[in-house]
Every structure is written in C-alpha cells, then in structure tokens.
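Progress against Task 2.4 (sequence-to-structure conversion) is shown through the following example record, which the project officer requested during the mid-term review.
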Amino acid sequence: MEWEIFYEDLKKKYWIVFLLISSVSLFTLSPSHTLGVIAGSMVSMANFMFLQHAFKKVFGTDFKRKTRKISIFLYYYFRLSVLGVIIFILLKHKLVHPVGLIIGLSTVVISITVVGVIMAIKTGGQGA
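Structure tokens generated for the chain above:
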C-alpha cells in the first residue's frame, strides 16, 4: 500500500478516535481529565506528523546526499526534547490530569492499531 494513501487513512482514523475519546471523556470525566485527553492527543499527533515529515525527508525521492545522519539524529532528539518539555510543563503546572494525558497520548497508537486491523480484515489476513 502506498504510504500517502495509508497516511491519509491514518489521519482520518486518528480524528475519529480523537473525537470519540474526547466526547466520552467530556461526558464521563472531570474537565482536567478531558483537557489532558485533548492536550495529549494534540501533542501526540503533532509529534507523529513531525516524525512522518522526517521520514519523508530521509526516505523520499528528493533525498540529498548532503543531508547527514547526524542532522537527522539531532532533529530526532530535538523533537523528543520538545515533546518532553511540553509534557513537563503540562504536568508541572497541573494544567492537565496525568491519566487524561496518557489516554490522549495513546490516540495515535490506537489509530494505527485500528488501521492495521481494518487492513488485515480487508486482505483476509493473508499478509503482504
């Protein structure tokens, strides 16, 4: 399956999972939990989009030899550091509840699992 098609399908499933989890938390959990779910989901998706951009840069057809491994590793650690700082600020200042944040951070993983299960069902579980 072409990466672009897969990625678009994944984004659609992500928004469905995000809306579903956010809606459920809105009606069943406290505002702090709900804000954690929303913030975690947004941070998780932004992180995934930046990772996808890095993969396109490295493995794309327009890859230039001047792009070195060290710059890719630096970008990875910079992105990871920014993610850590954002999570630290959210938790340190008690802007969100940790459980809600964990649930929100799991939305991309849940979306990838949903897409994988749907693909397995469509192909009849026969693999690639």
